[in-house]
């Protein structure tokens, strides 16, 4: 939007105040602004000041952008009535905000200043706009609305992808109390999330609202306030009239309110919505009617899709004009009072902007990535080594501990993971397990069988069928002091909701400089090789959508004992470092017993003793020889089969390296294993271009200058078909033998 429209809107307010006359009466500060309202004259003036500050920040951001000194021009102009929400809500009500939330943040900051937790919300915002390393929330990594002191976790989304985690936080408020875990906020806190009318159509928004209604219908406290800031347009596409009202006003298990008109009406409707949510502990939807001034962002040429007459009509509906008019008509202020306030706020913001441009920026990669993937192995190891009192544990296991089992001594991976989950829940009161079918049924593969019976429905929860909501719940739970271990039934299904990991969960620590975290260990039934049941939805071998997420730990065990040790390490990492972990469990190995021959029991293992654990970088190396086979998950079992055949049939001795960790890849351990190898074969069960690890491993070894001949074996670039045809496109033991011989022949 051109600067002439910005100036025109500023001039409209200035002309109005210059031409106005004082009212015939004046209100005392504690007088109600209008009869029957709880909004006093003094509070109304504070709201107006917060709105003026937000507007001045928008103007200053554009001025600085024009000189190359700032980097953000998506303004809150026209949305300043959200300052009412910032005034009525408490600083202990978690708030996940729309990007046009300047008024809210000025009001929230005002409360923070009074409570001694915030110094200056104006300067903090200008530091963020200028991408300064002194910005107290993101340290210059992005312009976000956020504050640790006033419970505003930063959001990077512009399409309402934060709604599922806001719902998760609302659910976790009640659940934490039932689990005797302190969520860090008062018992009657509510969660507020705001979004635009265009974003309300997005799948993640509808998912979040549906999940809140579903949870409420199931009898769970769900104190969440959905605030749709309806300005009638999404970038250039108009929202049909009454669309938000018609869509959301008749939903069951969702109370609907509208806030429209002058400030006192906005206040009354918002106050009722907040009080309803707080008292009834149920989902509330508030449509806050706004306008959008100056286009979508500074680069938006609004005249390309709106007439000048429509733009002028919008400018005439400027909420600052309406607020000023009401303050003057009621006698809450005089024109001189408001003119002075306008001048002071503009000067204050200008000074803050000038100062912010002098503050430093991030200057190194190390500074930028510092909060991305916090890793304190000593703390994690110490946490993993903590064990439950043996007598308590023996009573829980009714006398026979998993590591002492006699029928049989060795068990499958599924049985071991189930026992490990039980031990973690016994050890950590904050652990919450949930997902589709995990409770009564015990999971599709019965990995969680019996956990709900042992720990109750408070801690082991059957969710509705929606992966986005499951991952949203995990984030909200982590924010409020719980440790989530959600289950996603199949790897293919996580792709439906991968943005909850990419855009939300894994970015939170980064964009809050580590001040907010959502620790979780996401268990995902993964990979292919199921027999008698399959197709590409249940046999998925693509992890590209996960490997490219910065900071996300990818762990994948191949054996039952490893699964236990790795799970313990992952939970400890989540707990001590706030990490987000995807734990990829090979479906085909859940109940596998044998390695080489039927009945040999070679894939069964003992349950590791309490305290035994594995952390990223710790790998397994099987065998001796100058041929190195690098692999993971199902590839380990097949490679061990190939190892024996190569020795028996060809006299070739090989070592098999189980990577265990796919992100970050254990390059140091890989280097040690490959140092003396004559040939290295990477066996990657992922699709050739499906984001597997072969490319990264081969590239690393080549760049490291290893002298070994390098090769790789990968699955075909296709979806996995049903039945025996799957064996044609997936890596098989025969393929590993053949690839090894070809690699050595070419040496």
CATH homologous superfamily label of the largest domain? Thiamin diphosphate (ThDP)-binding fold, Pyr/PP domains
Structural class from helices and strands?
alpha/beta
Looking at the structure, the CATH topology of the largest domain is Rossmann fold
**How many beta-strand segments?**
19
The biggest sheet, with number of strands, parallel, antiparallel or mixed sense and barrel status, is: 7 strands, mixed
The averaged pLDDT comes out at: 95
Radius of gyration: 29 Å
SS field, number of helical segments: 28
What distance separates the N and C termini?
Answer: 64 Å
Q: Which architecture name of the largest domain does CATH use?
A: 3-Layer(aba) Sandwich
Counting structural domains, the number is 3
Strand content: 5-15%
The CATH first-level class of the largest domain comes to: Alpha Beta
User: How helical, in percent, are the residues?
Assistant: 40-55%
| Parts with pLDDT < 50 across at least 5 consecutive residues | none
The strands making up the biggest β-sheet line up spatially as 9-8-10-11-13-12-17
- Any idea what the shape is? elongated
